[in-house]
Amino acid sequence: MADDALFEFLHMEIVSHVYKEHATREDIDRERVTCVSTLEAMGFRVGQGLIERFTKDCPSFKDDLDVMKFLCKDFWSTVFKKQIDNLRTNHQGTYVLQDNKFSLLTQFSSGKQYLEEAPKYLAFSCGMIRGALSNLGLEGVVTAEVSIMPSCKFQVVIQKL
Amino acid sequence: MSRQSNRATDSKKMNSELFTLTYGALVTQLCKDYENDEEVNKQLDKMGYNIGVRLIEDFLARSSVGRCHDFRETADVIAKVAFKMYLGITPSVTNWSPAGDEFSLILESNPLVDFVELPDNHNNLVYSSLLCGVLRGALEMVQMAVDVRFAQDTLRGDNVTEIRMKFIKRIEENMPAGDE
């Protein structure tokens, strides 16, 4: 059973590595986009895998809102040690998940210091959410937004097929 | 200690899987980025080193071990405290060299390789190279230069996973090395 701290250390190092690598390969303009998409893709695979294991014995979900609630409570508690603090929706496929003390940002700052670095550390988590949703049957676009750390908002837009 | 409920054990298991899956995604990405396995091994080792130099502080803060007096004590602490705390396993310490400067850690199970199979075109990949780097980095921060390598690996057909650790020298007190 791996310790919680291990994931945080590994995540930090992965972000650092991806940015170092891409800085030496691509030109600076494209650096941001490529790094974030690499991290997001890694998170996607992990999210898919986690959900497979997690929902082995669960009954199927009634609707999208049920899936999102599962994500906010069970999935979030397992992965980030707490539940989502606030879930809002426009009932037309857009959901905003607010976490007031996001576990991957608590060590950064409790305010606006290092704000520009925060998105790097959210890409992986966005990917995880997208991967989790994908294996629960929902295609979505996930973005994250931070204004004051360690609080952040994940916006999920479900694509209707 | 609080009583472990079913939820808590499930939760711990999930975290273990989170780490394992993330590590797997990392190795896959590195295999895509680099042409040969040797490069991937090197990168994993480097990343492990960077993690190790930070992990040692977390370890020292959470365990209450004092300074080790010799290499044997170090080996015991690594196997019985550190591995137990971070990976939930207790490897055995064996195969001491006559000079007492080299030993093996035998892992019956390796959490990093749950769900993992090496494909045929990656025969030289030492999947768990990160561990070598972590051990090396952590010990360097407590003034010990060591050489760490995998002598046996279940992913490559061996029965157990064996990590061989060799003491090289004591490092003089100086500023910590930066990230490689």
Structure description:
The complex is a heterodimer of chains A (161) and B (180). By secondary structure, chain A is of the alpha+beta class. Chain A has four helices and four strands. Chain A has a four-stranded antiparallel β-sheet with strand order 1-2-4-3, with helices on one face. In chain A, α1 packs antiparallel against α2 and α2 (28-54) crosses α4 (118-135). The longest helix of chain A is centred in the first third of the chain and has 27 residues, at 28-54. In chain A, 40% of the residues are buried. The mean pLDDT of chain A is 88. In chain B, 46% of the residues lie in helices and 16% in strands. Chain B has helices at residues 6-33, 37-62, 71-87, 129-140, and strands at residues 92-94, 102-107, 144-152, 161-170. The model of chain B is unreliable at 1-6 (pLDDT under 50). In chain B, α2 crosses α4. Chain B has four helices and four strands. Chain B is globular and about 45 Å long. By secondary structure, chain B is an alpha+beta fold. Classes of the chains: A alpha+beta (161), B alpha+beta (180). The A-B interface holds A 1-7, 9-11, 13-14, 16-17, 21, 38, 42-43, 45-46, 49-50, 53-54, 77-79 and B 10-26, 28-29, 33, 43, 47, 50-51, 54-55, 58, 85-88, 111, 115, 179.
